[in-house]
Amino acid sequence: MSLDSGTSRPFLALDTSSPTVSVAVAAEDRVLAEEFVAQRESSSLLLGMVENVLGQSGCELSDLAGVCALQGPGSFTGLRIGLATTLAFHQSLALPATAIPTLQVLAAACAGLPSAIPQDGAQVLAVIDARRGECFTQGFRVTRSGPIATTDPEIKSVAALFAPPSCTVVGFDIETLLASAAIPDEQLLSAPPLAGLAALLAASRNCWDASSLTRPLYLRPPPASKRLSPAS
Q1: 50: number of CA atoms within 13 Å, CB side?
Q2: I need a surface site. Which of 9, 12, 19, 182 has the fewest CB within 10 A?
Q3: What number of other Cβ atoms are within 10 A of residue 52's Cβ?
């Protein structure tokens, strides 16, 4: 499904699988409203957060140009909640919808953070806590049009994680997560809530794929779980 990339109608984004769960509305190049909570508090608050950011931005679900969810990797339960909620908006309201890989959004976050990576072509390693002393990680190269993957997403031991001196490593509470890794603190960058940036990325997209909502990026086999219904 394609959208007019020049539209000024707002976009909704949900990140329900990161340690900081967030919901945001953005239009063109501006975040209109964003709310975030700790993941452990989010399951009962998600729809209320959606209602709040829509109200703060002065719009309703029917006004949206599209809705996106972060695709993972991340919390199994969180991923299912966000993707299923977004799929429900797509199916019930015929809203354009898509999923965006979380590691890609983390890499994109670097360019918007103070003292981050202003140079085109800089290296970024995006990292997400996978528990069990492991992390989900993927390498990117920053460009003016967005991050370009230089490696496939994978699971690595935190203690064995390596980044060259020219590489910035970004993730949630990154200093704590990588405390056992031999990476200098000056290379580490803690990520903000991601929904606002995801909504901005959604606003710049021209091609949307609702079927991506049925393909969460787990990287590790999930515990017993139900498959999401295919997008209509």
Answers
A1: 20
A2: 182
A3: 16
Residue pointed to by tokens 């000056």: 186
| Chain position carrying tokens 């903000």 | 192
Strand 66-70 to strand 97-100: parallel, antiparallel, or no bridges (unpaired)?
parallel
Residue 33 pairs in a beta bridge with 25
The two tokens of residue 173 are: 């509470």
Residue 24, beta-bridge partner list? 13, 34
Residues forming beta bridges with residue 25, ordered by sequence position = 12, 33
Residues 53, 69: contact at Cβ < 8 Å? no
Each residue's pLDDT tens digit, 111-146: 655 444 446 678 999 999 999 999 999 999 988 778
Residue type, 219: L
Q: Which amino acid is located at 201 in the chain?
A: L
Q: Which of 214, 160, 155 is nearest to 182 (CA)?
A: 160
Are the C-beta atoms of residues 110 and 124 closer than 8 Å to each other?
Answer: yes
- For 67-109, the pLDDT digits (tens) are 999 999 998 889 999 999 999 999 999 999 999 999 999 998 8
Query: What's the Cα-to-Cα distance from 159 to each of 156, 180, 181, 182, rounded to whole Å?
Result: 9, 5, 5, 7
Tell me which residue of 144, 179, 177, 150 sits closest to 166, measured CA to CA.
150
Distance CA 68, CA 98 (A): 5
Say if CB 25 and CB 14 are below 8 A apart: no
**Residues 6 or more apart whose Cβ sits within 8 Å of residue 130:** 73, 136, 155, 219, 220
Whose tokens are 């990140």? That residue is 15
